[in-house]
């Protein structure tokens, strides 16, 4: 009888220890699982943050590119304007030279006058046409630029 009680006690003790061990294991796995989930969450948050930063950087780059494009267009516009002014000055110079040459020629005054008048009219008309063309081009470019 005593032996039986001892055995039972021993068995019971062993069972309790096993249960305790099992509880510990469960608790450990639970904490491990929880820790893993927290780490995954943290990783996910970090990933999202990096993604957001990347997008913002790309936006910034895009803005910078747009600024550069605008600057470039402005420079081109300025160059074009300068070129037009130079062309006009050259035309005026040429006109002056031609006038001087015409004065030097030894033709009758009437012929000179009529030729000069005709040439002047033609040149003025041509100049006006060119100016109008240039203005139209400029306006259309400005409008396009504004539209963009």
From TrEMBL:
Q: Where is the composition biased (Basic residues)?
A: 1-13, 24-35, 98-142
Task: Give the start-end ranges of region Disordered.
Answer: 1-148
Q: Which domain of life is it from?
A: Eukaryota
**Could you tell me where the Basic and acidic residues compositional bias lies?**
46-67
Q: Where is the composition biased (Acidic residues)?
A: 83-94
Q: What is this protein called?
A: Uncharacterized protein
Protein's organism: Nesidiocoris tenuis
């Amino acid at each position: 009888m005593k032996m039986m009680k001892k055995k039972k006690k021993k068995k019971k003790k062993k069972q309790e220890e096993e249960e305790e061990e099992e509880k510990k294991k469960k608790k450990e796995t639970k904490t491990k699982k929880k820790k893993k989930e927290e780490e995954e969450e943290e990783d996910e948050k970090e990933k999202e943050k990096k993604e957001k930063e990347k997008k913002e950087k790309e936006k910034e780059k895009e803005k910078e590119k747009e600024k550069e494009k605008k600057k470039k267009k402005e420079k081109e516009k300025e160059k074009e304007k300068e070129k037009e002014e130079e062309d006009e000055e050259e035309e005026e110079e040429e006109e002056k030279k031609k006038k001087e040459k015409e004065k030097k020629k030894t033709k009758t005054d009437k012929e000179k006058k009529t030729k000069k008048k005709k040439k002047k009219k033609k040149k003025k008309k041509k100049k006006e046409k060119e100016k109008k063309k240039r203005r139209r081009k400029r306006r259309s470019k400005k409008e396009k630029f504004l539209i963009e």
